[in-house]
Amino acid sequence: MPALTNPKHERFAQELAKGKSQAEAYVDAGYAASEPNASRLTSNEKVRARVAEIQERAAAKVGLTIASATEHLLRLAEKGEQIGDASGFQASRASIMDACKLNGLVVDKSQVDGALAFTGIARRIVGA
Fold it and tell me: What is the C-alpha separation between 78 and 90, in angstroms, rounded?
C-alpha cells in the first residue's frame, strides 16, 4: 500500500506506528487536540491498514516475528528461573506473560473493560 493520499492521515499513521498514543499522534499530524477525533481517525480502515503495513515493514527490517519474539521471551523466562531468587522468578513470570499476550492467550483487562463499556454504550444508544 502506498502512502495515504491525505498527508495528515499519513503522518498520523506513521506516528501511531512509532508507538505514540492516538492523542499524541493526532496533534503531531497537525490537528487540534481532540481525543474523540483521534479515536475516530484510528478506526479508519485505510489508516489501520497503513499502520499495520508500516509496523510489518519495521519488523521485517529487524527480522522480528511473533515466533522469534516468543522464543526470545521464553529464553529470558528460563534464565530468570535459573537465577533462583525472587527477582529472577519475577522476570521469568513477566517474560511468560508477555509471550502469552503476544500470542493472544491473555487479554488485558483494560481491553475487555473497554469492549464491555462500548457494548453498554451501544445498547443504551440503540435501546437494546
Answer: 12
